[in-house]
Specification:
heterodimer; A: mainly beta; 7-stranded mixed beta sheet; 4-stranded antiparallel beta sheet; 11 strands; 0% helix; B: mainly beta; globular
């Protein structure tokens, strides 16, 4: 059973920078895993932010960026705003099934 | 405007069956693959199933063990999820999502499935 691991929670100050990571139990995350990142606010469906490691949706704010970092997928928020407080989920492809990470609750404080 | 509307959720007894639907509009449904994702109350997202645009390829989460079947009717712009042998742990909000080259972009609002006696 493949497990995808994210930080359970992170706190960042307004205007700051934070990096969320996404690791796979099968080894290093590569672009072949097509890392995706989703934002979910309370009571709302998830919203796609990043696909194929680093590509942004048309609605993704410029302060969000995706990358590969030290064998993990990473989502970096630069110039964090209060509205970025949410749960963030990564999604990795494993040659058929996909697997979500457990999610990171980002608090802006 | 892309719209996805799930329906068919409700209360079902353990061991029962339910068929979820997802109606699509605002895009050419037959050109896109589709995905089901669920979220148990207060929990994270769980990827459930994927179907290609033509319906010829399907993938399922290992944990489902053949109990769920995904299908689509391109003529009706609709996606389905047949769920059998339902268990309490299948209780969740079920989302459908449009997928571009396997990757989900637009999501519906979800339909709630509750498995309880």
């Amino acid at each position: 059973q493949t497990v995808v691991t994210q930080e359970p929670s992170l706190t960042v100050s307004p205007g700051g920078t934070v990096t969320l990571t996404c690791a796979s139990s099968t080894g290093a995350v590569t672009s072949d895993s097509y890392p995706n990142w989703f934002q979910q606010k309370a009571g709302q469906p998830p919203r796609s932010l990043i696909y194929s490691t680093s590509k942004k949706r048309s609605w993704t704010p410029a302060r969000f960026s995706g990358s590969l970092l030290g064998g993990k997928a990473a989502l970096t928020l630069s110039g964090v705003q209060a509205e970025d407080e949410a749960d963030y989920y990564c999604l990795l492809y494993f040659g058929g099934p996909w697997v979500f990470g457990g999610g990171t609750r980002l608090t802006v404080l | 405007e892309v719209q996805l509307v799930e329906s068919g959720g409700g209360l079902v007894q353990p061991g029962g069956s339910l068929r979820l639907s997802c109606g699509a509009s605002g895009f050419i449904f037959s050109s896109y693959s589709m995905t089901w994702v669920r979220q148990a109350p207060g929990k994270g997202l769980e990827w459930v199933s994927y179907i290609s645009s033509s319906g010829t390829s399907e993938y399922y989460a290992d944990s489902l063990k053949g109990r769920f079947t995904i299908s689509r009717d391109n003529a009706k712009s609709s996606l389905y999820l047949q769920m059998n042998s339902l268990r309490a742990e299948d209780t969740a909000l079920y989302y459908c999502a449009r997928s571009v080259r396997l990757e989900p972009d637009y999501w519906g609002q979800g339909t709630l499935v509750t498995v309880s006696s």
